[in-house]
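Possible regression after last week's pipeline update?

I re-ran a chain I had predicted before the update to compare outputs. Posting the input and the new output here so someone can diff against the archived version. Not blocking, just want to make sure nothing changed silently.
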Amino acid sequence: MIQRLAHWLGGIALHWFYRDVHITGSDRIPLHGPILIAMNHQNALVDAILALWIVPREIRLTAKATLGDSLLGAVLMKVVGIIPLRRASDDPASSDPIRNRLSFEAMIEEMRHGGAVLVFPEGKSHNDPEIAPLKTGLARAALRAREAGVRDIRIVPIGITFENKAEPDTAILAQVGDPIEMDDWPGSDPRQLTEAIAARLRIISLTGDIFPSGHHAMSHRNALIRLAAWWGRTMHKIPLRLARRQATRLSSDAGEPAMYTMTLGLGAIIVSYLIEVPIVWLLFGWIAGLLFLASLITGAYWAAYADHSPKRSRI
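New output (post-update):
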């Protein structure tokens, strides 16, 4: 339920900031069976939202353990079921080689039940155009799961390329690469497997056509949907404009404007709903209030998707 809601809200939030999300090779993502998703990491929280949007099945997220140091982060990790990963850089004074033992056990258990786990093997979000050196954690998790008797594990690389991640109304290209079949992987050295994952990520992270800035998807032909999209754009324009303005002020890094716009935008829209819906309720009755709320939610959906439906291809 939470994942479905996150998928729905995430898709809308992505289109509050970006113009298009183009996905190629989505048929390479297995719909069943244990998978580890290896994804490059250039846009902080936005990358996790993209993963939820791109992968057509429920996935278990991983994140740096320090996210749980704050109350809000700890609640988020608990509610969403995020698996914490502790990096060596999080505690340089300690080089405990089994610091992620419980996290690996959680990942293996998820795969044992045929689940999907998302890992950002670079270990951090960054602004460099090239892939950062990968950590061996994902490879070690895959090898340990195989040793524990989990079969049919596939490592699915997903490369994300941003036209300009800090600029609104730009495009995103998501490319799904060929999976690595762990049953057929000959070795047990995590460094060799990490190198293979890195090689596949490099192929799909820096190639492919990004839509030119002037390109827009064709508007939906259904008149009612176009009307709903117009209503949604009109009613959400002010809170989203305020969110973008505040996001620009708060951002000190290229990876922050989209993240702040999405999070602040969601908060601003909720506040606007809490103001507008009671007013309609008081003036015209509870039925009108509920219909008005439904129209806002429907409008938000079609404002995102009528002109910006994500394009998927099997290339």
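Follow-up from reviewer: compared with the archived run. The chain has two domains: 20-205, 223-313. Marking as no regression found.
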